[in-house]
Known about the structure:
The chain is α/β, with parallel strands linked by helices. The chain has helices at residues 2-8, 75-84, 87-105, 117-120, 123-126, 145-153, 183-196, 210-218, 242-255, 260-268, 271-281, 295-302, 304-317, 325-346, 351-360, 363-367, 371-375, 382-390, 396-406, 410-420, 426-440, and strands at residues 9-10, 13-14, 55-61, 66-72, 111-116, 134-138, 157-161, 173-177, 201-207, 223-226. It has a domain at 242-440: Hypothetical protein af1432.
Amino acid sequence: MAGWLTRWIGGGRVAAARPAPAAAWVPSPAPGVQAATSPSIADTPAPEPAASFGLRKPLVGRSGQVAAFELLLPMSAKRHLTAGGSPVAQAANQAALLLAARFIGASGRPALVQVPAALLERPSVHAAAPAGSLLWVSGLSDLTPAVSQGLRERGVRLGAPDGPPAREPAIDFLVLQAPSGEVDNAILSAQRWREIWPKLTVVALGLQHLDDVERVLKGGINLAGGQLGRSAGPTPPRELGSAAHRICELLNHLALDRDNAVIAQAVRLDVALSYRLLRYVNSPAIGLARSIETVDQAVTVLGRAEMYRWLSVQLLACGAVRQASRAMQESALARGKLLEAVALARGEPDAGALFTLGLLSLIEPLLQVPLAAAIGPLRLGEAAREALLRRTGAWADHLALLDAIDSAEGARIDGLAERLGVADALPALLDAAWQWSAAATETTGEPAVNRAGW
C-alpha cells in the first residue's frame, strides 16, 4: 500500500488525495439473467470519495442502524511510520486520517478516530479535525486547554478510553474495549461513568460477536463496533420463513430464465412484496417519466438483472427481527458492492455473482437460520457454495478479506488485498461501497432510516 501512503505523506506535507472517480455501477447479471436496460440506482455513479484513507468499520447505534464509522489506520501505514519514526510523517498521516473523516461525516454519520494528544497538539493535525467528528484522544489530560477548547468550539467531540471515573478532564464520550467475556464489565463501567456524567455518550469497541453488539446496546451503550459477521455460538436449527422461501423461488425463476409472466405472477401472490416492488419502481432512484401501476409492468421495466438484485436485498429484509438488522442489511450491501468492485478491478467475469456472495455472507445472522439451510433453496454456483460453506475454492480469499476487515486484522487485510491485487485501491473501494450501500438502503422500497439514532 505504499502508493497511497506516498500520496499522503510527501515532504512532511499533507497532500490532497485524488482517486479516480468511482465508476458507474452497472449490474452484472446472475447466470441466465439478462442485463437491465431501464434507468435505476444501478446506473447512477457512486459519489466520488474525495479523500480515501484508512479503513471504515461500522458502528451500530441504539436504533439498530449504522450510526457512525470507526476509521482505522491501515497496518501498512503503521509499519511505515514505526520504521521511519518521523514525527512529521506521523502528523501528516494523522492529518490525512482526519481529512478522510471529514468526507465520511459529510454523509451525516460521524467518524471515530483515535488520536494521541501529542499529535493533536500539532496545528496541522487539529486543523484537519472536522466538525462533528469523534476524536478518541490517548492522553486527553495532556491536551492543552487552548487546543481542546478550540476543537470543541468547532463542533469536535473529545473522548477518552476507559479508566476510573473522574470529573477531570471533561469528556464528551467514553470508549470502552469489550473483547469476548468482558461485555458485562463494559456495561457496568458505562454505568459508573454515568454516575458522574449522566448524559455521557459511550462507545464500545472490539466486540467479538453480533450477539455482544446487540447486548451492549440493550445495556444502554450508544455505539457498538465489532464483528457483525460472527455469532456467539452455532445457529440453532430453524427453517426459512415463508417470505424468504417465496423470494428464493423468485430468484431461481430468474436464474433459470423463466418468462416475465411467471415471475410477475409469483410476485403478485405476495401483497407486501408487490407493494414494495411498485414503490421501488416508482421511486426517484428509478426516475421514470411515467408511473408504473402493475407488477407486470414493473418486472418488464426493471429488467431481469435489476430484479435479481432487488430480490436479493428483499431476502435480507426477511431477517428484520434483530435489533441490529438495519445495520446488518447495510453492511451486507457494502460487502456485496466491495466484492463486485474487487472483481471488476481484477477483470473477473463474475462480478454480479460476487456481489451476491458478499450479500449472502451475512445471511445466517440476519435470517437466524444455519447457513446451509439459508442458501439451500438458491441455485448458487459451486464457487459460491464452497466459499460460503467451507471457506475454500476460487472465492475463498474474497470472503476472507471481508472477514479480516470485520475483525480489523490489519496484517491479514494487507496480505489478502495484495493477493487479490487491490492493495492500493482498497480504501477507495471500501469508501465507495459504503457510500453506495447508504444510498441503496433508501431506494429498495423500504422506509428511509434516521441515521442519527444514537
